[in-house]
Amino acid sequence: MPAKIVMIGGGSGLPVIIKPLVKQEVDLTAIVTVADDGGSSGLLRDYVNIIPPGDIRNIMVAMSTADQELLALFQYRFQTKDDFLAKHAVGNLLIAALTEMTGDVSEAITRLAKYLKIKGQVYPVAKEPLILQAETTDGQKLSGEAAITAAHQALDHVWVSPSTKGQKITANPEAVDAILSADMIVYGPGSLFTSILPNIVVPGIKEALQATPAKQVYIANIMTQKGETDAYTDAEHLAVLNRHLGKKMIDAVLTNQSQVPADFVDYQRWGEISTQVKQDPKAIEKEGAEVVSRDFLLLRDAGAFHDGQKVADLIFSLLEG
């Protein structure tokens, strides 16, 4: 029986690791944040009252074995001059339409998964859209993922609130079951405060993560995020993650040891990144985790990214070990 891996996050980080992982003999599940309120996803969650579909769309494409022409259509984003449909991705509209047709986002994702022939499962962390809340290190309160990201301020902690006043926040039971039955939980890569932590702070998820017997692995970011994690070491990322988990839960940290060339990154193009994450292996060990330091760096498009194949190979070897 294939090992069960659950990946937790959102944004553009998870697909980089998922694409090579689905080629392995594993049972892969992605749990995705529902607090995104920017761009096409934000507009659809406001006008159609559904969970933001963008991260789900990207992960489904990463898991898909369908024809590339179909995937290109699914990912196609209308041009800004197309006033009514400006910036909407076709896949986002399909997720919204199927959610309305079926009355259930899980059923919508299941149907699309069949069309796209995906290898694995994609579960939103909750079935209703949530609002991400944050408190900065100087005590200021910020509301909404887009506003938090745009503020570029150092953050202390985050939590979620319902998008409808008085509504009870409940974790998606499919996500909880996946965590409890997993052999390995993988966090990231991705924005710590706006992609990873918004999943963990959903009531029911943290409790499942504390209860699961699975090995828990954190993929440390290669670059810090402007304002939010400026000058953070890999160990400081880990400490914030453990603090939101409620205890020292992470067994291993995958951290990049290769140097990003000083003149390679285009900081205007990649406006949310700041500096390279520095390694602090002793502090990671004090957090109770094993340090797994390798060359994970992939330089492309004037940016610094994880080499998905190298990370996936290592995750698979940790499973076997």
Describe this structure in words.
The structure is a single chain. This protein has one domain (3-320): 3-Layer(aba) Sandwich (Rossmann fold), CATH 3.40.50. 38% of the residues lie in helices and 22% in strands. It contains 13 helices and 14 strands. The protein has helices spanning 13-21, 39-47, 54-63, 68-75, 90-102, 105-116, 145-151, 173-180, 192-200, 205-211, 234-245, 281-286, 308-320; strands at 3-9, 26-32, 121-124, 130-136, 141-143, 155-162, 184-187, 215-219, 223-225, 252-256, 273-276, 290-294, 297-300, 303-306. A 7-stranded parallel beta sheet has the order 3-2-1-7-8-10-12, with helices on both faces. A 3-stranded antiparallel beta sheet has the order 5-4-6, with helices on one face. Helix 1 packs parallel to helix 3, helix 5 packs across helix 6 and helix 8 (173-180) runs parallel beside helix 10 (205-211). The longest helix has 13 residues, at 90-102. The model has no long low-confidence stretch (mean pLDDT 92). InterPro entries: CofD, CofD-like_dom_sf, Gluconeogen_factor. Its main location: cytoplasm. Pfam families: CofD. Required for morphogenesis under gluconeogenic growth conditions.
